[in-house]
Amino acid sequence: MKAKTSVVLPMLRLLAAYIAFRVQVGMLLLIVLLFTYDTLPWWIVIPVVLVLDVLLFTFQGKHSILHDNHLSQNAAVKQELEQLHPESIGLCNYLSSFGCPVYKNTLCDYYPLGEIFFDALLQDIEAAKVFIFMEFFAIANGELWSQIEPALLQKAAEGIEIRIMYDDMGSLFKLPPQFRKRLTEAGIHLQPFNPLLFRLSKAIFDYRNHQKIVIIDGEKGYACGVNIGDEYANLYPKYGHWKDVGIRLQGDAVWPMTVLFLQMWNASDDDIGRYKPTICYKEAFGFYQLIVDGPLNNPHNPAEEVYCQILYNAKKEVSITSPYLMIDTAMFDALRIAVRRGVDVRLYMPYNHDHWYNKLGSQAHYARLLSNGVRIFEYTPGFIHAKMLVCDDDIAIIGSINMDYRSFFQQYECGVLMYGTPAVQEIKEDMKSIALQSQEIRWETWKQRPLPLRIAQTVMLPFAPLM
């Protein structure tokens, strides 16, 4: 009976998601029939899609961005940022308006590969003394999980508080056998985000939790683009070399990550202060500010708007990596205008893609970007899944934010914005190594691509919100 249940429940969940998916496809096709890409700007289409989404699917709004009652801005820290980085104070003020203060007294380790990231994470899990909070879009069975699970079970046996949150859609058919049974029996708390089963009104690919963070003892906070799966640590070579990155913070800037996790968990506000960091790294350089975004912010979108502000204020260069490229008019204009201002704007995309439709959808944007001077490179060793931005010599972002519709409008996302930290230079150097392993897509060559490819790419454009 248990074996049948383990198969039937995921199938019911998938069926619910499929039905809702077909409803949304029909909705988008209706819009496409009424309007065409050339005659109706996407800044009109996207709000229409969002309004119809809300009418069709009532979203349970218990999860939201950070709240001021948990976090407060240290005025002296903000004043110091303004003195050292006066050009960034506007960006800082913008994020502060969404309840995200700026912090200092924090160390940062940059991990240029997923396997290095997970080595550090596993060591910190094994050394945990108080609590472990983990939040990933997907958790998948495999060699990587076979290393992480025993460490978690051991910590649970020692009495360490462990909470694990994962997206129900992102982990569908991927979770290890008896995952919930083994972990809950060990005393580990699990929470699937936005469960699909018997919740058809919420069983679409929209409104997923794409955040990827880990907090250990309140002293160490990981932000990244990886999920728990073998491909993210190059243990599964289907797509070639998998390029992913992450960071580990230690110090004051870990606190907003802890607050974010607990709010996504919908934890009680009582005694939340016991999770605060206690170690202050006053010798550390630079400033950190959390970027938190989700569908409840619409029509304001901090993730996209932070990217746009950085592009508008850049002086020399901006480099961005993303596995997916499905942008709206606002982002396109920010990229285009930055080039017109003389900024060297570079996008690093995968040569190999995890899904053929994502490849076509991403490449559908190449023509208008290349023709406006944006430089596009494809990472030839395989699939670049890293989500990062570096601007000039003093600003960088690492996190879960893709350059696509879903990240900017539909999913809960998290990133760390860094001002003048040593990690910014490490990220710049890593960008240089990515460039050496990438081939540039030239406009002169791209505009001569075969007609069938052009048609296929154009057909995929209206489906960007579903990818």
Q: What's the pLDDT, averaged over the residues?
A: 86
Q: In CATH terms, what is the architecture?
A: 2-Layer Sandwich
CATH class: Alpha Beta
Question: End-to-end span in angstroms?
Answer: 36 Å
Indicate the percent of residues in helices.
Answer: 25-40%
Count of DSSP E strands? 20
Q: How would you sum up the global shape? A: globular
**How is the largest sheet built, in terms of strand order?**
1-10-19-17-16-11-13-14-20
CATH superfamily: Endonuclease Chain A
Number of domains: 1
Secondary-structure-derived class: alpha/beta
Radius of gyration: 22 Å
Major sheet attributes: 9 strands, mixed
CATH topology: Endonuclease, Chain A
Count of individual helical segments: 16
Uncertain segments are 1-6, 31-39, 56-64, 198-204
- Beta-strand content bin: 15-25%
Overview of this structure, please?
It is a single chain. This protein is α/β, with parallel strands linked by helices and 467 residues long. Helix content is 39%, strand content 20%. The protein has a 9-stranded mixed β-sheet with strand order 1-10-19-17-16-11-13-14-20, with helices on both faces. Strands 2-9-7-6-3-4-5 form a 7-stranded mixed β-sheet, sandwiched between helices. Helix 9 packs parallel to helix 10 (329-340) and helix 11 packs across helix 16 (451-460). The radius of gyration is 22 Å and the shape is globular. The model is unreliable at 1-6, 31-39, 56-64 and 198-204 (pLDDT under 50).
Features:
16 helices, single chain, seven-stranded mixed beta sheet, 39% helix, Endonuclease, Chain A, globular, 467 residues, alpha/beta, nine-stranded mixed beta sheet, 20% strand
